[in-house]
Amino acid sequence: MTKICQIDNRGIVSVAGGEAEKLLQSLVTNDVTQISPGGAGYGCLLTPQGKFLHDFLVTRDGAGVFFLECEAARAPELIRSLKIYAMRTGVEVADASEDYRIFAAWDMAGGTTLPLAEIWYRDPRLEELGFRAVIPVGQAGEVAENAEFADYDRLRIASAVPDGSRDMIPQRSTLLDHNIDALGGIAWKKGCYVGQEVTARMHYRGLVKKRLLPVKSQAGTALPETGAEVTDGDGRRAGEMRSICGDSGLALLRLEKAGEALVCDGAKLEVSVPEYLRKKM
Predict the structure, then answer these.
(1) DSSP3 helix / strand / coil % (the chain, rounded to 5)
(2) In angstroms, rounded to a whole number, what is the distance separating the alpha carbons of residues 210 and 168?
(3) What CA–CA distance (Å, rounded) separates 213 from 223?
């Protein structure tokens, strides 16, 4: 049965003006020129040193306004960063979170029609994540939810998909360690963007030594919070926990340790590798 829920930890930042596409193309990791109305892309804003700042799903309307679905709590930070780059361009950057609600739909059976069907778009990261919608607040009541955010969160975790700063540390994390490359969040041939040189170097020189991977408590107990150390059977550091949902979570693990018996705060962990990531490891 199709599951639908509101994604209430995400907000919307709008980017409008005649130079909006040019501005975003020079800043973000993906190619926004390839996003058409009704479609979507996934990308990030980085520091000049190639470190993570923000991730977002990008859509646009027929009038050329871009909508960045980002972390709601950090939307003001994203706006401040974009406004610095937008100075003297005529591009307007605004927080539109109060005007829209974000929904996800997944596990769709064949022939299923979603409410307000023309608004939904396929999640560009993974087919397993289903569809996404940015719905004007006045129409949000037409969408009947039958799932909880925790249901979606477990799906996201099992798919090894990061959720912004719940999994990536601003100004410290690199994208390839956190699967952004495998999720289609980087356009390798688009040319320059902020942080491009460092990101490309990691990719072409094969410098990835860690990956964000799904883990589960073998005993079914709740996992420790973000930052808890993951060790191997000899007590040597193998990585650390990131976002969790009950007995499931994501851990940033050293690749050479991913196949070993691992422990976090006394809980024995079961590590899994989604199929799309296997060719990256």
Answers:
(1) 25, 30, 45
(2) 13
(3) 14
CATH H-level, domain 3-158: superfamily = Probable tRNA modification gtpase trme; domain 1 (3.30.1360.120)
Q: What are the φ/ψ torsions at residue 52 (nearest 5 degrees)?
A: -60, 135
CA distance 205 to 138: 49
Q: State how far the alpha carbon of 206 is from the alpha carbons of 28, 60, 177, 203, in Å.
A: 22, 34, 11, 5
Backbone angles phi, psi at 41, to 5 degrees: -135, 165
Structure confidence by residue, pLDDT tens digits, 95-109: 999 999 999 999 987
Residue 281: the pLDDT is 78
What does the pLDDT look like over 203-240, one tens digit per residue?
888 879 999 999 999 999 999 988 999 999 999 999 99
Q: Where in the chain is CATH 3.30.1360.120?
A: 3-158
Query: How far is the C-alpha of 59 from the C-alpha of 65, rounded, in Å?
Result: 8
Percent of the chain topping pLDDT 90: 90
**CATH code, 164-278:** 2.40.30.160
